[in-house]
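Job type: complex structure
Entries:
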Amino acid sequence: MELNKILYVDDEPDVRHVVLLSLETIGGYQVEAFESGADALEAAETFAPDLLLLDVMMPGLTGPETLAKLRELGATAQTPAIFLTAKAQTHEVEKLKQNESADVVPKPFDVMTLPTTIHGAWTKLADFT
Amino acid sequence: MSFRLKTILGVALIEVLLLVALIYVSLTTLRSTNEKALASEARSVAQTFARLAKDSVRARDIETLNDFTAHLLRQTEIATVRVFDTEGQIIAEAWDAALTDQPAGKRAAGTDTGHRFVTADVNPGGHPFGRIEIGFSTRHIDAIVDEASRRLVLIGLVALGLSVVLAYFLGTFLTRRLEELRDTAGRIAEGDIGAQMRVRGRDEVAQAACSMNTMSTRLRDIYEDLSDREERTRAILSNIVDAVVTTDAAGNIESFNCAAGGLFGYSAGEISGRPLGDLISGNKLIEGEPVQSYLLSRAKERQKLSLDQMGQRSDGSSFPMEISVSRVQLENETGYSCVIRDLTRQKEEQSNWRLAHRVFTNSGEAIIVTTPERRVVAVNPAFASVTGYTVDEFVGRFSSDLHVERMQPAKAIRESINKFGRWAGEVWHRRKDGSEYPAWMTASKIEDESGVPTHYIYIFRDISEQKRVDQMKSEFVSTVSHELRTPLTVIKGSLDLVRSGVFGSLPDKAKDLVDKASDNSARLGSLINDILDLEKIESGGMEFVKEAIPVGGLLAEAVTAYGSYAAERGVYCTIVGERIDASVLADRARIMQVLANFISNASKYSPDGAAIELSVEWCGDRIRVLVRDHGPGIPAEFQDRIFGKFAQADSSDSRAQNGTGLGLSISKLIVEAHDGEIGFTTAPDEGTTFYLVIPEAAAAGSETESEEHRELQRGAA
C-alpha cells in the first residue's frame, strides 16, 4: 500500500498553504486541505484518504475531536492519523498517542523534511494496523 | 578546799577529839587511882601511928610524939603531922618544909589543895585520947599526872601527825582517781568525746569511772551519729539544686549552701553574717516594707512564703529568682530558712513561649495542632481566615473534618510523618461553607523524650490563587508556544520552499537574502524553544521520564545523532577511552539534549578537522560523561558565567551567533533535575572538556527503576 491521499485539517490558512505546498510539491502527495474539522468530515467519505493529518488546537472541533468523528465514518475508521502540534509536552503527546493508530509531529516542522517525516510515521502506523 | 585537805582536816579533827578524850580519861583515872592509893596508905599510916602513939598521946609525951612525927616526916609523901588532944588542941606538930611552906594551921582536913589530910582517932579500948592528923602531899601525884599528861600529849601529837600523813596518803589515793575522773570529764568537755579512763578495783570510784566510760562511749556514738546526720544534711544541703540560705532571727545569714554560692557568686564565708536583703536586688518595697522585713515578718513555720524577686549577685548583676521563706522555731531561737530558685531559664522559657505563641498567632500560614488521635487542640487565626471556622469552634473537633475524602492521602501522610518525621504536599480541604480548595500542607510531629508522638502539627495555606496563576501561566506558555511557532513555521516553511527552487531559481542576491532569512528564522525557532524549555524546567512544568540507559549506547546515539551536525562544521565525533558496562538513570531525550549542546559547542570552537572526543568514566558510584574539544579554551573572565542565561563569550564571535546563549543554562537545569552535576575543565589552546555526572541506574535503587518501568509500560500501552 502506498501513501497517496492525505486529508489535512488546519485552521491557520498560512500554515495550511505552506504545508500543502510542501506535501504536494516536495512530497508529491494528493492533499485535500480543510480549515475546519466539520469541513473535513463532509469530504472525508468521498475523498477516502490514506492519511489524516490534523492540527490539534482549532476552533470548533479540535484535532482529537475531529479524529473521533472521522473514526465513525467507514472510509476513515482505521486510517492512520498524525497530529501536528506545538504542544510538545510529554503528557499531552502521550494523550494524543492514546488515540488508536495516531502519531504526533511537533511544530515547528521543517517543510523540506515534512513529507519524509510524515511518510515515515505513516509507514509505522500502517504496519501497525 | 580540796578533797584531800578536807580528808586531812577531817581525820585530824576526829583524831584530836579522840586524843583529848583519851588523855582526859587517862589522866583522871591516873589521878584518882593514885589519890585513892595515897588515901588508903595515909589512912593505914594514920591508924598505925595512932596505935603506936596512943601511949604518948595519953601520956602527953611530947618528946616521943615529936620523935614519932619527925620519923613520920621522913616518909616521902607526908607533908604535915599534927597530934590533937580530945579538946582539939595541937599537942605536937611537924611539917616537911620541902613539901609545904607552912603548917596546916586552921585548914580543915581534906580541903586543902595540894594536900590530902587523913585523921585517925587515938582511942585504945574505946577511950578517946586524941586525934592524929597526917597531911599527905599530892605533889607527887601531880607530878606523875603532869608527866603522864606530857607523855600522852606527845604520843597524841605523834599519833595526830601520823594520822595526818595517813590521811594525806589516803586523800591522795582517793583523789588521784577522782582527779582522773575529773580530767577525763574535762577531756570530754573539751571535745575528746569517747575518752576512756582506766578502771581499777570495784569501788565507787571505779563504778563512777565505769559509768563515765559508758557515758563517754555512748556520747561518742550519739555524737558520731549526729555528725553523720549533720554530714548527711550538709551533703544534702550542699548538693541540693536549689539555693538554701538560713538566717538568724534578725535575718542575718548563717548558712549558705553550694548552690547558693554558685547562684550568687559568694562563698559561705563572705556572705555569712550579712543581711538576707543583700541577696535581693534593688530597694523595692512591698506594702511599704523592704523585701527582707516583709518576708521575715510574714514567714510562718512549716509553710513557705514565696516571692518572685530579682536576685543580686556578688558582681552586681541581677537575675530573676523565686525566694521562699519559712520560719524555723528552735527551742530558744528563731531562724529562717530560705529556698531560692533561679528563674532565668523559666523566664526565658516563658519569653520563648510567648514568642512562639505570637508566631503561632501571627503566622500567615494556617496551623492545626492535634493529638495522635487527630483531635484538634489548637488552631491559629490564619486557620480561621482560611477555613471560615472560628478558632473556638474548631478546637476539639477532628482534623479530618477538613478533609475532602476523595482527595485525602491522610493515611499516607501519617505514615510519612512516622517514618520520615515530616510530610509535605498538596491536599484538598473543605471550608466551613462546604467549598473546596487546594492547600499546600506540611505535617510534622512533636515527640516526648522517649520518641512517642504527643502532637501532630499541620501547617497549610490555600493555594487556589497560586494554582490559578500557575494555570494561567501554563496556558500563557502554551499560547505563546503556539502563537509564536505558527507564524514562524509559515515564515520558515515559505522561505525554505522558495529556497528549494521548486518554484524556479532566484537571482543570486535574492537567494542569499532568502538563505539569511531562513537561517535566522531557524535561530528564532530555537530561541523560542529554548526559552520555553527554560521556563518549563524552572517552573517545574517539565516532566522527566527516567529510565536505565546503557552509557555505551548513549554515546553511540549521540555520535549518530549529532555526527552530521559536526561534519557540517568540518569536525568529527569519536568515542575514546574505556567502555563502561553500566547504565545511567536518565530521561533519554533530555540527556541527549545536553549532549547535543556539548557537541554543538565543541563543534563551533574546534579547529577544522579536529576530533570531538566522547568518553565515560566512573565518578564514585555515579557516571561521568565527557565531551572534549581541541579548541582555544574558555577565557578565564567568562568561566564564571558560562552557565548563565544568554551567556556567550564574545557576542561579535560569528560562531557564537549561531547559538541562543541558553543551551548551557538549560543543560545545567536538566542535569540538576537528574540529581547530577555539570561542569567543565579548560586550558588555553588545549581545549575544553564539558562533563555531566549522573547516577548509575543500579545504584539509584530498584524502587525508582521499577517505578519508571511501570511508567514506561503505561506509556507504551
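Summary: The first strand of chain A starts at residue 5 and ends at 9. Chain A has one domain: 5-126.
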